[in-house]
Amino acid sequence: MAAGGPALLRALLVAALCAVPWRAEAAIGVNWGTVSNHRAPPGVVVDLMRANRISKVKLFNADPGVLRALAGSGIQVMVGVTNDELASIAGSQAAADDWVAQNVSRYVGRSGVGIRYIAVGNEPFLTSYQGQFQSYIIPAMTNIQQSLVKANLASYVKLVVPCNADAYQSASVPSQGVFRTELTQLMTQLAAFLSSSGAPFVVNIYPFLSLYQNSDFPQDYAFFEGSTHPVVDGPNVYYDAFDGNFDTLVSALSKIGYGNLPIAIGEIGWPTEGAPSANLTAARAFNQGLINRITSNKGTPLRPGVPPADVYLFSLLDEEGKSILPGNFERHWGIFSFDGQAKYPLNLGLGNSVLKNAKEVPYLPSRWCVANPARDLDSVSDHMKLACSMADCTTLYYGGSCYGIGEKGNVSYAFNSYYQQQKQDPKSCDFGGLGMITYLDPSMGECRFLVGVDDSKSSAVASCGGGCCGVCCGLWVLALWVLTYLRMMGSA
Asked: Transmembrane ranges (predicted)?
């Protein structure tokens, strides 16, 4: 091989990667969670993101089907190390090497997945975890960083740690923000690591939860239209919870010597049901207000004109399989329903004035399970409990879109939720003879009786429509060829 060959090939690789869309800095991304019994095929979801020009996605794990579907999509990816994986990776360089090889190198090098960040844990410093993950974070990051160096990816893939906002606090105003006492040393180490590698501090901010958990919290302070209860902090006045929370973190970082560290918002959003303050109107107002604020580049009082490095909306899709321990709203954060249908008009500031719905969703046949009108429902309670313990009935409760549809409506909704979860198995609509299958849609007003998704037809590969085609895909091919060649020559 001629002298300078590897350097030339690396230059070609960098040129190819720099030309693809996910190198561009788009402010708004999404979280894609998959805790659902009605998972739309990954390829359909990737096409949904591309149709809506969403160029950044944050994942909570390293699902192979999801990562394969993202290949060549032009979408920048943050892939997640789960909290349960932290201990083994922190304690073993070999385990870190294997994780990177299986979940990063194989996709960046062979499949062209735009993995740019690895999230090491998910909110590992939560107070409720009582410190069980804290000792793993820095060792895990150190080991993964070494693995990235070995794979020649350390300058390209950055490590971050998504933190819950409970990692810092303030007695009253943002300028008094500090990290929790037991986290100060650890946060200083984390900030130093992030600063040295050029990665942002990632924080999850939820004004909705502040409103939900505190009856004295001013409702208008949770939104972006201005508040009648502003927070005055010396020369700075805060009219919304987001700015106040963000600057509390800025103050906390300043006190440990990293006041200029870039900050990205890992999760932020508003649920559409499951609580009195969770509804379509409020969700649209919050998310649109947030997007308008971010895209205006206004920044915050402590960082004027400097918006967050990235903002990942929570979330892309509803996840009816999530725990409702925090509240019934936990399953309803999506800007799209589980099947990729937009819940409300929203301009993401990415080129489309409204959201576009998913296409080619492989629904199960149009049939539903409902209460048999010819049967007495006196003995139905145990059947309803069974159905709702297995499937999602949160929309039936106060604050839900199906609240108030009547007793028979409640029974039918519960029966159908279970029936669809069981992929329309006829036996799952028996309920001791109280259920029956119908081909007439029993939906009532805003209460939608779902039809499940046939995940047996799941395609892991997104189509080329609406995203990476022509010159873009040609560049991906070039990038992949260069990576393959470098590996064959032992220099990549």
From this structure: 460-486
The predicted structure's pLDDT at residue 457: 58
pLDDT in tens, 445-470: 999 999 999 987 554 343 343 334 33
123 is catalytic: yes
Domain boundaries along the sequence of the chain: 21-360+463-467, 368-451
Element (H, E) at 300: strand 299-300
**Which is catalytic among the residues 267, 273, 319, 330?**
267
136-191, pLDDT tens digit by residue?
999 999 999 999 999 999 999 999 999 999 999 998 999 999 999 999 999 999 99
Q: Is 296 exposed, middle or buried (0-12, 13-18, 19+ CB in 10 A)?
A: exposed
**Exposure pattern of 335-346 as b/e (b: 16+ CB <10 Å)?**
bbbbbbebbbeb
Amino acid letter for position 98: D
Residue 447 CA to residue 449 CA, distance in Å, equals 7
Greatest Cα-to-Cα distance within the chain, rounded to the nearest angstrom: 85
**Residue matched to tokens 């725990």:** 323
Question: Which CATH code, of 3.40.50.300, 3.20.20.80, 3.50.80.10, 3.40.50.12780, is assigned to 21-360+463-467?
Answer: 3.20.20.80
What is the chain's length? 492
Q: How far apart are CA 218 and CA 215, in angstroms?
A: 8
pLDDT by residue (tens digit) across 369-400? 999 999 999 999 999 999 999 999 999 998 89
Each residue's pLDDT tens digit, 250-272: 999 999 999 999 999 999 999 99
Average pLDDT over residues 411-427: 98
> Considering 85, 123, 320, 330, which one is annotated as catalytic?
123
∠107-110-114 over CA atoms, to 5°?
A: 45
Q: Is the dihedral of CA 459, 121, 54, 283 positive or negative?
A: positive
252: left (phi over 0), alpha (psi -120 to 50) or beta: alpha
Distance CA 419, CA 405 (A): 19
Task: Tell me the CA end-to-end span of the chain in Å, nearest whole number.
Answer: 15
Q: Is the dihedral angle over the CA atoms 73, 78, 84, 87 positive or is it negative?
A: positive
Determine phi and psi for 409, rounding to 5 degrees.
-65, -40
What does the DSSP 8-state code read for residue 221? G
Choose among 378, 381, 385: nearest CA to 417.
Answer: 385
**Amino acid identity for residue 278 in this structure:** A
pLDDT in tens, 348-358: 999 999 999 99
Side chain identity, residue 35: V
pTM above 0.85, yes or no: yes
- Each residue's pLDDT tens digit, 267-279: 999 999 999 999 9
